[in-house]
Amino acid sequence: MNFHELFLAPYESYTTFQIILEITATFFGIASVYFSIKKNIWVYPTGIISTALYVYILLKFGLLGDMLINFYYTVMSVYGWILWSRSSEDHIHVEVSRTRRKEWYFSATLFIISLILITVVYYYKPFIENGFSMNGISVGMDHLDWANWLDVFTTAVFLVGMWLMAKRKLENWIFWIIGDVLCIPMMMYKGLNITSLQYVVFTVMAVIGYLEWRRSLKPEEERN
Questions:
Q1: Is residue 66 part of a domain?
Q2: Which end of the chain has fewer CB atoms surrounding its CB within 10 Å, N or C?
Q3: How far is CA 145 from CA 32, 54, 151, 152, in A?
Q4: C-alpha angle 74/199/186, rounded to 5°?
C-alpha cells in the first residue's frame, strides 16, 4: 500500500469543507497539547475550538463514543479553564501535583461508569442514527465492529485523562498516551487519516508532557 492509497485516497470522496474542517481541528488540537505541556492556560481556549469541531466531524463518521467525549472535553475545558485561572498566580501558568489515593479511586469509578454509559450509547446507535425512530431498525450490539469497541474503551480512558488534567495531576499524561496510541489505527480504519497522524503527534507530545510535568514537580511531590 503506497502513500496515496494510505493517506490521500480516503479523501477523494470528501468535500473541501470537510478536509479544511479536519485540518483546522487538528491544528488547534496540537496547539492545545503544546500549551498543556507548558502548563499554560491557553490549553483550554485552543482545546475548545478543536473539540467543538470534532463533535461535528466524529458524529458524521459514526464514532459516537469519541463524539461524546469531545462534547465532554468542551464542557470540561470550561471547568478546567476556571480551575486553572483560580490556581494560577499569573493567570497563565499553574503548579502540578501527583494523583492521591482518593483521586485514583474516583478515576477508577469514572472509568467504569464511562464504559457502561458509552456501551449503552452504542447499543442504541441504530436508533440514534435513524433520527431517534425505531422504524425499520433494531437495537443491540451486533452492529459494532472492532473500531467501535475500541472507541468505547478509549472514550473511558480519555474521560479520566481529561478530569486529571483539569485537576493538574501528573498522571493525566499516562491516560493520554494510552488513548492516543489506540486511536491511531481506529482513525485510519475510519478514513480519518489526518486525525490519525494527529494522534501520532499527540503520543509523542504526551510523553514529552509527562516528562516536563514530572521535572516541574515540587520536591515534596516528587518523593510521593
A1: yes
A2: N
A3: 31, 21, 10, 11
A4: 95
- What DSSP string runs through 147-166? HHHHHHHHHHHHHHHHHHHH
Whether the Cβ atoms of residue 147 and residue 189 lie closer than 8 Å to each other: yes
Domain range holding 99?
A: 14-222
Domains identified in the chain, total number: 1
Q: Which residue in 207, 189, 205 sits closest to 26, CA to CA? A: 205
Cell numbers 497563565 correspond to what residue? 92
User: How do the pLDDT tens digits run along the chain, 224 residues long?
Assistant: 555 555 566 667 777 888 888 889 989 989 999 999 998 989 999 999 999 998 888 787 766 666 777 888 888 888 888 888 887 766 677 889 999 999 999 999 999 998 998 888 888 878 877 777 888 888 888 878 888 888 889 989 998 998 999 899 999 999 999 999 999 998 888 777 877 888 999 999 999 999 999 998 876 555 55
